[in-house]
Design brief:
Largest sheet: 6 strands, mixed
Number of helices: 8
Helix content: 40-55%
Length: 296
């Protein structure tokens, strides 16, 4: 992708996502995330009417007078995007690749975050950390994020190493953040890191797939290549048994991923290259807002 084409795609995504954020997402996002965090403000003497559960008994013992902790609502969130740009992200049988879809998802979420005055950061990874942009609040940060995703995925290579990306996040993000992990999750051995980050941060997983990864076409004898390893295999896609076995394996892997998220209580949104990403995002925000409302 040359510079002119790159900037054209960035502008197109920015125009689309700006309109959608202003019209449809900003309010849902605010209801889903804002006010969920609190920050310590001060310790002061207990006053009539204070919640006794806020008493700090250690300070009370030292001073001899009841002391309470005061907290303030965390008005500004930190949003971190962990985006997979391994070789498999260049695949797409529809109008967009998985990389293009990842950029659209990140743009929608990032513009919404900036609209709500939050800080936004980015970590691009494959089997290494390709790019890291510290979280900050600026509308100019979002086009840069989209540009970096598109530029990096245009040269995407290597395997997927989700565990290494999550470990890197832990070293650079000490305070609690909202973390969107966008990947096709074609990896293994990351469960421990995933569960640990889910305890430390508000982790939301965003699996991306393509229809041809779920069901093969009846295309006769073809050579298939793994974009991450370069390994190839010949397959007779005219065989119904081959296509059914492939589809069954894909369903099992998708369900195993959902079970993993359920086991560690990790919220998730599923995306496909053949559908608009706005609807899964809106549905997720509204589910989350209803859950928070019931807990309030």
């Amino acid at each position: 992708m040359d510079t002119t084409e790159l900037m054209r795609k960035v502008r197109a995504i920015r125009i689309l996502t700006n309109r959608l954020v202003d019209e449809r997402l900003a309010g849902d996002y605010h209801a889903s995330f804002k006010g969920q965090g609190i920050e310590f403000d001060e310790i002061r003497e207990y006053q009539v009417g204070d919640d006794v559960r806020s008493i700090d008994w250690n300070v009370t013992a030292r001073t001899g007078h009841p002391q309470v902790k005061r907290f303030i609502e965390e008005r500004q969130l930190t949003i971190q995007f962990l985006i997979d740009i391994s070789g498999s992200q260049n695949f797409g049988s529809q109008q967009r690749t998985k990389a293009d879809l990842a950029a659209e998802i990140a743009a929608l979420l990032a513009f919404t975050s900036i609209h709500n005055q939050d800080n936004v950061g980015l970590i691009l990874f494959s089997d290494r950390i390709v790019k890291a942009i510290p979280a900050r609040r600026s509308r100019n940060a979002v086009p840069r994020i989209v540009r970096e995703i598109l530029a990096a995925t245009d040269h995407a290579t290597g395997r997927t190493d989700i565990a290494a990306a999550l470990r890197h996040l832990e070293t650079v993000q000490k305070r609690k953040a909202v973390v969107f992990l966008i990947s096709d999750f074609q990896d293994q051995g990351y469960e421990t890191a995933l569960s640990r980050v889910a305890r430390l941060h508000d982790l939301i997983c965003c699996p991306i797939s393509d229809p041809s990864e779920r069901a093969l076409p009846n295309a006769g004898l073809v050579e298939l290549e793994d974009p991450e390893t370069g390994e190839t295999v010949w397959a007779d896609l005219a065989s119904r048994a081959v296509r059914e076995a492939f589809a069954q394996r894909a369903r099992e892997e998708a369900e195993a991923l959902r079970n993993l998220f359920r086991r560690y209580r990790i919220p998730n949104m599923e995306f496909s290259t053949d559908s608009d990403p706005i609807e899964p995002i809106r549905a997720f925000f509204r589910r989350r807002a209803r859950t928070r409302s019931r807990r309030a």
